[in-house]
Amino acid sequence: MDWMQLADAAAAVIPSPALVLYPERIEKNLHHMVSMTGGPERLRPHLKTHKLPQILRRQLALGITKCKAATIAEAEMAAQAGVPDVLLSAQPVGPGIQRFLQLAAAFPATRFSALCDDEGVLSEIGRAAVASDTTVDLLLDLDVGQGRTGRDPRVGAAALYHAMRDTAGVRCAGLHAYDGHLHQPDPVEREAACTKAFKPVRALRDSLLAAGLSVPTVVAGGSPTFPFHAQNPEVECSPGTTVLWDAGYAAKLQDLEFLPSAALLTRVISKPGSNRLCLDLGHKAVASEMPHPRVIFPALPDAHPVAHNEEHLVLETAHAADWHVGSVLYGIPWHICPTVALHSEVYAATPAGPPERWPVAARSRRITI
Fold it and tell me: What's the pLDDT tens digit per position in 176-218?
């Protein structure tokens, strides 16, 4: 049986469009992640991809005790699930500083940390922490080529880390370097680029240690560079997409042996021509920030998208006659992370029994804090 069709027995009761997850394949991906690092201790998986406590609990069962979260809501969900160590992969600003402090106070059993790359924000966090009679763990965020956040590790980063050390209410927790811009299809080229990007991070770490500063950890990498950072015992690895995988990474990163573990269930809702199928899989059900293909249909390899709207996806295919209005199609999303965020719940398919409904708990921008 094709893995996507595990949900077929219950497809009649699953409303479309829906996102279906396959726990057995997720479990294999998690085990592969642990195997790549030689154990769970160096894994800090990013939960932005799945946003689900059910997957966090599986990670905990495998001995993975740390995670990375993109939002305070995601961090709160992780704490609720019992994760002992949560890194907010963002610099708290504005009211986010107080929310972060409230989060730490509400879940004292979880160690929280956050990123910082700005002197002004550092001062604000320090003052807020002192006023709250607490200490905030901060990692210096480094820009290793993406040009999105962080300090150049070669210019000014050491001075800011020294300032972190000298700021009341703040504790230096290490360095963070995300190289999400590196996704070359050739693994040799990607590894060379990863090594080059990380070189100044290692040099900064060594210089800080030589100056007597504490650098407890270095968190580095995303999914494309995960296999290379996994070979470096100095680094905590923080891949995210590896948990669910998707069609985009499967096509581009063929050296990585992860399994697509999420599929979109959609139905034919109209046949506007002899060679056309209209599906209920619009922008609101599948990530649409990139050009087509936004979803791959294994049962229709010749399908070509000709229109995509809020609630509709129109395909041209020579096999349209094989599908009737109401037929179920399964597709693998090209980009899984924002696709999950479009669904308030997912369906977990199993070989026997009806699928379980899992609310996407951290899809919200706010849970309680």
Answer: 999 999 999 999 999 999 999 999 999 999 999 999 999 999 9
Distance CA 39, CA 41 (A): 6
Q: What are the CA-CA distances from residue 337 to residues 288, 315, 362 (Å)?
A: 11, 23, 12
Phi, psi of 181 (to 5 degrees): -80, -5
Is the separation of the CB atoms in 242 and 258 below 8 Å? yes
295: three-class secondary structure by DSSP: strand
Residue 147's Cβ-count burial label (10 Å; 0-12, 13-18, 19+) is: exposed
Helices (runs of H) and strands (runs of E) counted in the chain: 10, 16
Residues 197 and 52 in one domain: yes
- Look-up: residue for tokens 């094989």? 322
Query: Residue 262: which H helix or E strand, with range?
Result: strand 262-273
Pairing of strands 136-143, 111-116: parallel
- Same domain for 183 and 132, yes or no, is yes
- 78 and 138 belong to one structural domain: yes
- Asked if residue 17 has a cis previous peptide bond (ω within 30° of 0), the answer is yes
Residues in Cβ contact with 210 at an 8 Å cutoff, skipping those fewer than 6 apart: none
pLDDT band at 6 (very low <50, low <70, confident <90, very high): low
Distance CA 344, CA 13 (A): 17
Cβ contact 135:170 at 8 Å: yes
Number of separate domains in the chain: 2
Instruction: Please tell me whether residues 57 and 103 are part of one structural domain.
Output: yes
β-partners of residue 331 are 264
Global model pTM greater than 0.85: yes
Percent of the chain as helix, strand, coil, to the nearest 5: 35, 25, 40
